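For homework, think about our next protein:
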Amino acid sequence: MSQALDQVWAHQEQTYNNGDLYAFKNYGWDQVMANGGYLNICVRWDSDQPVSATLRDQIHAKYAEQYAKWFDTLRENGQRWNGWPYDQVKITVVGWAVRDRSLLQWTDNSVDIYVNDIRENAPQCAESRGRFFHQDGVYPGGTERHYDQSLWLTKGMGGGAGGDWGQRMGSEYFVGALGSPDVTILQHEIGHTFGLDDFYDWTPTGQNSFVMLAGSSPRITQFDAWMLRDWWRHLKPRYGL
């Protein structure tokens, strides 16, 4: 796969951030390393459908499971790959954002709840606790309950979007995939959170089925794994590793 991987990296370097991929400091890698091996998540519930405590916990578990599929690729034969420092990256949902509190059908305090804080016509968790808004790691709303990314679930949305801010897709799609081993759109969008490219107008030599090539694979493939590893190989010196 080396020829294809070299093509992908060269294309990214030529296409993004004015030719300097290293200038950007809020990739998913940066977030994990700044935290010391974990990520906190906000769910933006952009829907008028109610959520039971059971459904909430299922959403949390499925999201963490899908994230783990990416981090599992940074291990090989029980060993961390190429200096990757973490055996496990813990994913914790620390908040839910909603327009109407009555949609959330639980009374426990396991997550913070944010009501009718609207940005981009959708509810959000407090900006004072969001890494997207405070990339220096100083959170006016407190560090312990800060969130690094948002899982933005929008009623009626087709497809998805992803970046350093998190991942967005249809709420019906995500809930409908709770029983599936692979939530394809989520896996694809998490890839973008860690810098992986889209392939709308070209494909690397010899590669035509991988999750980052939308519609070609329902799950993370070996080529996806090696693209993620290539990002780590290039970025790890910024962390002194």
